[in-house]
Write a structure and sequence with these properties.
62% helix; mainly alpha; disordered C terminus
């Protein structure tokens, strides 16, 4: 079993499915497991810092060959791979994400943020990780179950007040555009929630204007002002 096999990923992070479980007991167990994993990661990092301090006078070349420091660094890397968000970066650079064994856990991480935003913020906040994962997921070629999950994530994002990096989901919407997604967005646009109506309408507009750099604050403000045809290539991410 290689470190990047589906079986190895499941052994390290299979418990994370509990973070999005409906059963409160299962969720509590997963949150406890996450706390333990993050504590272990911090303890391992403390050991790295300890040995780095003890060996700093050796000079960079000898220092990083020091057996104790290298052992501590290896233990820290292993601890990260059993936690979130660090476990998502055990393979870098990422291969084709549509066949990446870590894909299910990237989706869990994003769904956890979408369904339990305050909990995610308190326990594993990582806006950069969220942004990179969403951008990497915004590609064609996903299986139907993954497309369905990405569609669900877009709908969850538009139905809540804006959170950091949520605009990136427009990339995903464009990548998985289809009847199911548009039907969900149409329902949100027709809901009683003002934010859902505005945000879903904006995403639908972005789908109908694929050449527009919709993932910018400038275009968003232009849309709100009633000038959705504004095209400002210089503002593209």
């Amino acid at each position: 079993m290689t470190d990047d096999s589906p079986e190895a990923w499941h052994a390290r992070l299979g418990w994370t499915y509990g973070l999005i479980a409906r059963d409160p007991a299962e969720r509590t167990a997963a949150l406890d497991r996450l706390s333990e994993a993050r504590a272990a990661t911090q303890a391992a990092l403390d050991q790295v810092n300890k040995w780095w301090y003890r060996t700093r006078r050796l000079g960079p070349e000898k220092q990083y060959r020091n057996t104790s420091l290298r052992k501590a660094m290896g233990a820290h890397k292993d601890a990260q791979r059993h936690s979130l968000p660090g476990g998502l970066w055990s393979t870098w650079p990422l291969p084709d994400i549509t066949t990446w064994p870590g894909l299910p856990y990237a989706l869990v991480f994003l769904e956890w943020e979408a369904r339990h935003p305050q909990e995610w913020t308190e326990r594993a906040k990582a806006w950069g990780t969220k942004e990179v994962l969403i951008r990497r997921l915004a590609v064609p070629g996903h299986t139907e179950p993954v497309r369905a999950k990405l569609t669900e994530l877009v709908e969850l994002a538009v139905r809540r007040a804006y959170r950091c990096k949520d605009r990136e989901y427009i990339r995903v919407a464009r990548a998985v555009d289809g009847p199911d997604l548009r039907a969900g967005l149409a329902r949100a646009a027709d809901s009683d929630e003002p934010w859902a109506r505005t945000h879903a309408g904006y995403v639908l507009w972005a789908l109908d204007h694929p050449g527009t750099p919709a993932i910018t604050r400038h275009t968003w403000l232009a849309y709100l002002s009633g000038a959705p045809d504004c095209r400002c290539p210089e503002h593209q991410d």
